[in-house]
Amino acid sequence: MVTDKDYQIATKLVRGGQHRSENRETSEALYMTSGFVYDSAEQAAAAFRDEIDTFVYSRYGNPTVKMFEQRLALLEGAEACRATGTGMAAVFGALACQLKSGDRVVASRALFGACHAILTKILPKWGVITELIDGTDLAAWQAALETPAKLVFLESPSNPVLELVDIAAVCDLAHDAGALVLVDNVFASPLYQKPLELGADIVIYSTTKHIDGQGRLLGGAVLGKASFVEDVFLPFYRQTGAAISAFNAWVMLKSLETLPLRVAAQTENARQVAAFLYNHPKVKSISYPGHDSHPQHDLAKRQMSGFGNMLAFEIDGDQAVAFRFLNALALIDISNNLGDSKSLACHPFTTTHANLSDADRASLNITPSHIRLSVGLEDKIDLIADLESALAAIG
């Protein structure tokens, strides 16, 4: 089996975690089973006491899922990983397994809409205190962490306007305050940013995005030290039913084999699209960490090894103009998903962040003219032509 020190990332994504059965299959096996059998009642009892290393029930663990988890852990450089049914199951589980009434969470204000709802609507019902701050402002982090906190939660780059957080600096401040740091690393992808190397304690993914990358399946993952993943997260995971299906894990296991090829091509397309949009008279602004115009471009170069396929831009106009632009797209689809092989555009103000108040959206710099674009694998010439045609159509 490939270990974490043997090969480069591309090789690990093809070979990592592989466990062949007695049939010696080339492709990883798909174990579609809910349960497992034992040679004796004594063996079953020992399995439930964790005295022997065996599978018990697919809600607890499954051979196919385990291969997926081991491969993800090798990619991330993590000691342990557990895969979940969705990305939001990963986010909620990683938070909920640690928090109780009276605990305090400090988070960057720039979050995906569902993450924002967990922090501002669900956790406060349990008596958890949450404070949202400007994640780009280190002074704000320092001030917020002068008060004891249990956890720090952030996205970088953020959804949808790609603001960055200085992960290493925030981790130093959080650890000095006794807090663990959770990073949602979806926009960067596990290829282009390594939060654990920057000091984070826990990394979260919606594996629905780049890891599957083809719009087929839902999934999530929680990664970090074994002491957290196995001792803190796993009991919560087992009892609350957050497990991913073996079929979804198997498809994503195969998807990992092509992840570097897909993301590299998408990133190059995004670079070309950003350059086109920056120079277009009907585009008010763009936000792409890989473009010189991004206010945190230097930070992006420091903590990211690549800039990914996600960008945001503002149409020069109001919501009606933004809708005319979206409706004029012929190649790029309108969808709230991202990280797909197909290019996808959405209007965050009325979709992914529609549950936020006007004040919250304003604080996140999300305007009615914003478009979030997930750049896919189509030819860049066709993508730019589609964008140019739609921009011409808005009048």
Describe the structure.
With 395 residues, this protein is an alpha/beta fold. The chain folds into two domains: 9-258, Type I PLP-dependent aspartate aminotransferase-like (Major domain) (Aspartate Aminotransferase, domain 2, 3-Layer(aba) Sandwich); 259-393, Aspartate Aminotransferase, domain 1 (Alpha-Beta Complex). The chain has helices at residues 9-15, 41-48, 63-76, 87-96, 113-122, 138-144, 167-176, 189-192, 208-212, 226-240, 246-255, 259-278, 297-303, 319-328, 358-363, 380-393; strands spanning 80-84, 104-108, 129-133, 151-155, 180-184, 202-206, 220-224, 283-287, 310-315, 333-334, 344-346, 370-374. The strands form two sheets. Strands 1-7-6-5-4-2-3 form a seven-stranded mixed sheet, sandwiched between helices. Strands 8-9-12-11-10 form a five-stranded mixed sheet. Helix 3 (63-76) packs parallel to helix 11 and helix 14 crosses helix 16 (380-393). It is globular. The mean pLDDT is 96.
